[in-house]
Amino acid sequence: MTDTIKFPGLGLELDVNRVALQIGDISIYWYAVIIAVGFLLALLFMYKNAKQFGIDMDRGIDVIFIAMVLGIIGARAYFVAFQWDMYKDNLAEIFNIRGGGLGFYGGIIGGIIGIFVGCRLRKVNFMAFLDLAAGAVLIGQGIGRWGNFVNGECFGTNTTLPWGMTSANIMSYIMTHTSEQMGADVDPTIPVHPTFFYEFAWCMLGLIVYCLVMKKRRVDGEMFVFYIGWNGFGRMWIEGLRTDSLMIGSFRVSQLLGALMAAAAIVAFAVIRVRIKKAEAAGNAPTLWRDTEECRLKLEGKWDYKNNASKEEEKKVGSEECAEGTGAKTNSQEPENETDSGENSFGEQ
Fold this sequence. Notes:
Elements: E1 2-7, E2 12-17, E3 19-23, E4 26-29, H1 30-49, H2 57-82, H3 84-87, H4 104-122, H5 126-151, H6 168-175, H7 179-182, H8 195-213, H9 222-238, E5 247-248, E6 251-252, H10 253-281, H11 293-299, E7 303-304, E8 309-310, H12 311-325, H13 338-346
Antiparallel strand pairs: 1-2, 3-4, 5-6, 7-8
Helix pairs in contact: 1-5, 2-4, 5-8, 5-9, 8-9, 9-10, 12-13
């Protein structure tokens, strides 16, 4: 499984083996190792920056697990939907993820659904978690593209730029696919764009911008909108170069979706700015989740999730009830229904 990847313009040749480790009949691929490294780095990023977004990672880790499961399901479903002819006569192959075939946008959609479900179940702020996850996804997405490099996939059309790449696997792919399948005429004897690296570089640049602006955000959801826009603009031009995109007729699905994401982000940012200005004009400055009293209490472990109230408030109400039971209140003329009114303001006791 060794392939020699060449960069003729740079005078580089790299012998790349897809298998990182062989244990008996079990092969552990570099692709899986690289994806795992990307996931761990993304997780470390979330732990380090969780408080910046008011997220309790003891609960957040459960949200991540749910999002990861639904993300994988979404990525597979997305790929299968656009390559149905490959699976319609062998449905069992749909579940063979080791054979490859995950759609990025399907993973994003599934992941967002998973975050929503997880946040509802674990009582975590949804929009704040999306903001935090946006930076983590940039890391995982960028690092993960090096797995595509090892596999000799996710490359582009021909280029005369000095960093153009070629290999036996790349040439074989080009020669066994039509121009309609690749979305362009490609010469197997000419180097191609290393689009895997373009996306890696775009994600790392996006991460730098993300870190510079995350402390200046005004409302929850802004960093998620930033990611949607950044990823959309990047994939608009990167997908336009690739030769392995999912196609609808002569159109690349990911390129179209990238354009829609970029447009949606522009509209969302405009709406957010208008709402902020209106709120400020009315004397109601927007508040980030991290700045609320409820967020502070949750991060300090002083929140009663069962009753959705501060533990101090619950303790105070309980103490008052005990005082009433021992006759601590001296005003015997108080209406009997006053206690009921106080209980209702905090929910059932």
